[in-house]
Amino acid sequence: MHPVLSDLIELLKLERIEDNFFRGQSHDIGSAQVFGGQVLGQALSAAHHTVADRRAHSLHAYFLRRGDMHAPIIYEVDRSRDGGSFSVRRVVAIQHGRPIFNLAASFQKPEDGLEHQAEMPDVPGPGGLQDLTEVPPEILENIPEKMRRYLTDKRPFEFRPVRPMNFLKPEKLPPAKHVWIKAVDSLPDELSLHQNLLAYVSDYELLGTSTLPHGLPFGQGRVQMASLDHALWFHRDVRVDEWLLYSLDSPSASSARGFARGQFFTEDGRLVASTAQEGLVRLLDENHPARSKSTGPKHQS
Predict the structure, then answer these.
(1) Marked catalytic residue, from 33, 38, 87, 203
(2) Which residues, in sequence order, are bridge partners of residue 262?
(3) Parallel/antiparallel/unpaired status of strands 271-283 and 98-108
(4) Lowest mean pLDDT among 52-61, 77-86, 168-177
(5) Pick the catalytic residue: 26, 87, 227, 263?
(6) Percent of the chain having pLDDT more than 70?
(7) Please, are residues 162 and 123 in contact by the beta-carbon 8 Å criterion?
(8) Which of 33, 224, 250, 277 is catalytic?
């Protein structure tokens, strides 16, 4: 297996301390704090460890504090309910004695029922599109170092935007975009693993969609962004080692917050998951103390 994907799987496995307590480590992907998708994926993994024969169908989470990349994260799972068809788990992520993240996740026994779905957008397929890491040298030379690292470091997923972003001369665009996503190598068939990985990758690209109408100067390090909350619904079984179209839009931005929604489609048009997120979006002035920590777009392409 590709080393960076293998490392991510190890990151999401967690160390079991007691029945309902787990320890996780962190990986620096070039963001100003622990990547929100990592905490999402690890928290869902912790919940999965306490459920048998049921599949995650939804999660709802709040990001409370910045995560420290140099300290372990403890995940405490509360087994809130085990009913005849559904199980509910609450997970608190703790660092330095304080909660940094809360998650509620619901699991269901496999069951047949009504079927319908939204249509897949008519966009070009992944073949022939460039990966996010294929950035011209003249752009890399003129963006902040952490942002350059984020764009060029080896990563466990391929990201092929239908319309790449110009980091030096951002245009004002409609608040919608489409990105093809796939793990860089084949994975085992375990559904919980694919769901944990989808939770991880769902935090990429999402919040940045709310900035598209504004042409923000990401290359100048003046944009502060952070996830506030995140929701994810699993509609059908999913494999993240096959191409998924991440179709995103942003209905609103206001009060220094952006709101964005996403849908994941397989290449043959099945809607496998939906997501939504609200996050902090601030444009900093020259002397703002947070400016040195701003790395530009939060997982944007």
Answers:
(1) 203
(2) 248, 275
(3) unpaired
(4) 168-177
(5) 227
(6) 90
(7) yes
(8) 277
Number of other CB atoms surrounding residue 161 within 10 Å: 19
Q: Which residues are CB-neighbours of 167 under 8 A, at least 6 positions away?
A: 135, 139, 143, 147, 218, 219, 296, 297
Q: Which residues contact 289 (CB under 8 A, 6 or more apart)?
A: none
Q: Is position 227 annotated as part of the catalytic site?
A: yes
Q: What is the pLDDT of residues 213-270, one digit of tens each?
A: 998 876 556 788 899 999 999 999 999 999 999 999 999 999 999 999 999 999 999 9
For residues 223 and 290, give the distance between their C-alpha atoms in angstroms, rounded to a whole number. 9
d(CA 192, CA 212): 33
What structural domains does the chain harbor?
3-110+129-293 (2.40.160.210)
Who contacts 86 (Cβ-Cβ below 8 Å, separation ≥6)?
54, 106, 107, 108, 109
Cross-strand bridge partners of residue 62: 102, 229
Specify whether 277 is catalytic: yes
pTM of this structure: 0.91
- DSSP secondary structure letters along the chain: --HHHHHHHHHHH-EEEETTEEEE-----SSSSS-HHHHHHHHHHHHHTT--S-EEEEEEEEE-S---TTS-EEEEEEEEEE-SSEEEEEEEEEETTEEEEEEEEEEE---------PPPP----STTPPPTT---HHHHTTS-HHHHHHHHS--SEEEEESS---SSSPPP--SEEEEEEEESS---S-HHHHHHHHHHHTTSSTGGGGGGGGT--GGGT-EEEEEEEEEEEE-S---TTS-EEEEEEEEEEETTEEEEEEEEEETT--EEEEEEEEEEEEE--TT-GGGGG--SSSS--
Q: What is the pLDDT of residues 106-120, one digit of tens each?
A: 999 999 999 999 999
What phi, psi does 254 have (nearest 5°)? -165, 155
